[in-house]
Amino acid sequence: MKAAQVLFLLPLFLMPIAAQGHAYLDHADPKVGATIATPPAVVRIWFDSELEPLFSSIMVHAAKDNWMVDKGDGHVDSSDSTLLEVSVPTLPPGEYIVYWSVVARDGHRTSGNYRFKIK
Fold first, then answer.
1. Does domain 20-118 have CATH number 3.40.47.10?
2. pLDDT of 52-85, one tens digit each?
3. CB-based burial of residue 45 (10 Å sphere; 0-12 exposed, 13-18 middle, 19+ buried)?
4. Structural domain boundaries of the chain?
5. Residues 81 and 43 sit within 8 Å (Cβ to Cβ)
């Protein structure tokens, strides 16, 4: 490599990398992959960034038939903008999938899912 090329490229490697503003799942209740004995009344997910309530959603489906089982009241908690939650009826034993899609306050969207089981 020529010296001129090295001098041109060197500042690019020394520049700080901008932090991404995506909201990532921090922890959940029920926990990701957990097997629990008592069905939850509410499924909650905490993120590492504040969420935009209008653009954030959560759903719970039965894994067996992918049927929605939550009460359709998913929302960002009014007192904790990092918490996304949805109510569920008394769920029977089985495996469930929590689907979420959120937009961080800076406008970046992330989505994902995780499973938990009730024995």
1. no
2. 999 999 999 999 999 999 999 999 999 999 999 9
3. buried
4. 20-118
5. no
Q: Are 39 and 29 in contact (CB under 8 A)?
A: no
What pLDDT does residue 22 have? Answer: 85
CA gap 67, 89 in Å, rounded = 14
Q: What secondary structure does DSSP assign to 16-65, as a single string?
A: PPPPP----EEEEESPTT-EESS--SEEEEEESS-B-GGG-EEEEEETTT
Distance CA 93, CA 116 (A): 11
What's this model's pTM, rounded to 2 decimal places? 0.82
Token pair recorded at residue 30:
């029920």
Which pair of tokens denotes residue 15? 């520049």
